[in-house]
């Protein structure tokens, strides 16, 4: 049913014709075999069943199978390295679908490379991709005049990575950079957090935020299975976080499935359980930004989102009255969603992802008291 | 090789469960059989080989086959109507691929519905889609409290539409609105103009501009075949335009294929030929916005874009010196492209599409002296 039509784009696709590139011998580097723990974006340092999993292997027994399977998608994971090579090749194999009707293969299955320069500006690096059984991205002709401090390779948002290698020309330097040790911001959420429907991984809001804030971000977004479940909250507690963000309402809107009491109890229990283990870590509750009138004329879509936002507001008010400190609420209106921000009334376009990032950045800087830095 | 994985999104996809919707009898309306010429976004009123073509049938003999075939894609076409129905169904058949690696099916093959209210604000209408042999979009639960003046249904960006019907509940009013008679802005360009890689048709910049400016826009973007060719310029001349926009440089960057002289001659000839027939219509030459350093670290990509921008600048200067009036240049820098604006170094993300729209809107208002209106 589905086929790509490369013919039409061949004019632009063949722009970077590297007749000589293949002749150059590459040295291959596998982050899973590296002495340095170089796979970043996770809340745990070790114990993974696969090097590209988001949860430690021990979590499998605690979690519903859907959550476990989704946690094998590499959303939010990235690999940092330095190299002097003007050409970088990434090759990898994955499990999972190639694309979704509203999200392209470059976002679902692709990788995305950024490079930080000496002024801490993040450049995007263009890659030629080839979605074969082994996926290959080739990043060529990298601007030699800009002094680069760090590359960051974002992994696929909706695929599980089985194996990955990074190639750099022989004779050039190459080193994986260790995972940063500062406390991460930990997000627990839905398909939106996981990255649907960013056109490429670097534009998922958790990845944009990580660059903007220069702080580790842990993406625990699980498609339609971000349901504020106790086993996941338990896992969250085991992370020494700087901030917990609970953004599961887009999966809890359905009144038939989740009664008023059920929704409110899940929110309250999640907050109280996090508070028990991590009394000083701020917690941010987030409304569904598509629960505003400007997002869609479809009342059957917007009204349930608004309802669940209101349910959470009531829990928030109650918890505040009961004296819970460092609890914050991010209201739907703050995101300024409108006719351009979602692809389907729920999942952000890249414009929506940018609004998410802007809004979260403002809120997180407010909570943590960190002033904005000029990019 | 490619398959969608609906399972993962089913939680959100099944949100609008319309058990009763199918029982309601619909009245079907075919814009191709309507008394009113209701298919808008074209430079000609009649003579089409298919109702959803962008060029009149007579153009086929003049054009290279690639251009003709691409002109059958319905990019920029839309259908305006009014209805009191709270549910609208659109069904249609198409030719062409389902998706591209960097552009989802919703943009390539999907339709997109907007509704203008009494304050001239354009609401987006959420639709449930089904990409079967007959594509179906169902727009339900349309907000009844907002007084709507006009619906606008944008057609697929990268498919040719063969047949299309709009269904509205029996007993509700329905009328196609005639194509506006005011002079259009006519764009001639590439895949970027055609809409790659907007996530849905309403976010292609020509469609966003049409809403923003409340003015007809003609999209003559032809993927990799927007090459400033004489036969296309001849066709442009036959349109009584308010402004011509020539945005073909993203297809003319390749120095091996297009020498300095060739590029410059194509630009100069295009301008002079338009001037001959349409002496008073302003002409806007546009640089490739990805020809700026911030767009990509890939020098082999950015440098040819910069080169071709410079070639055009020289022609522009020469033509201005020779006394040509109402000729304008939109420089690459004006678009403020950066690390978030393209999916592949060339084609805009939705963020890039919005920058295109903002930049064009500013420039067009400057040229035409129309002040900005608050949305």
UniProtKB/TrEMBL annotation, chains A, B:
Q: Can you give the residue ranges of the SGNH hydrolase-type esterase N-terminal domain?
A: 27-174
* Signal peptide range: 1-21
Keywords in alphabetical order: Signal
Where do the SGNH hydrolase-type esterase domain residues begin and end? 183-365
Among Pfam families, the record links this protein to:
GxDLY, Lipase_GDSL_3
Q: Which InterPro entries match?
A: GxDLY, SGNH_hydro, SGNH_hydro_sf
Q: Which GO terms describe its molecular function?
A: hydrolase activity, acting on ester bonds
UniProt-recorded name of the protein? Hydrolase
